[in-house]
């Protein structure tokens, strides 16, 4: 009998697959229009503007694109090998080996990004993440994250290894954002212009 992956397997899987993942990662940057939306929404509280990249992976191409546009990047990943790759890719950035679910950096950021990372968490852990987002959000900070388009669990692959995904109902995400002081700017379910990703962009109103 095949054992399905669970959210508890994610960090170990990405740690083991990091090198292959980095080699196979799509570099076309189909995410560019949404990254530009994030850049446009992020306030200029400080110069350079600060970005917290949760589940940063190897740092290319997303963090590299944002760093090239003047953002000071702090990359966080629970997979140690991913953090090492991130530090090699972006030596000028801050690279932290930490679990996003328990993150307490004691500082705030002008933008927070959780692209193709947050949706590996269990539904309960996803709900708890909104307090983490809020704790690290500077005034009017932009928050962008990807989810599924409907409530449920699914299974995919990372460099050939099976991985777990989960999503809440879109209304649950709206309610959680409102509860934690965020206002939805944009919601794009299964955007055909972004490889059918479901994307949220919100602003922290605190």
From TrEMBL:
UniProt enzyme class: transferase
InterPro entries: SAM-dependent_MTases_sf (IPR029063)
Domain of life: Bacteria
Keywords: Methyltransferase, Transferase
Gene Ontology terms describing biological process: methylation
One GO MF term attached to the UniProt entry: methyltransferase activity
Signal peptide: none
EC number assigned by the record: 2.1.1.235
Pfam families for this protein: Methyltransf_23 (PF13489)
UniProt name for this protein: dTDP-3-amino-3,6-dideoxy-alpha-D-glucopyranose N,N-dimethyltransferase
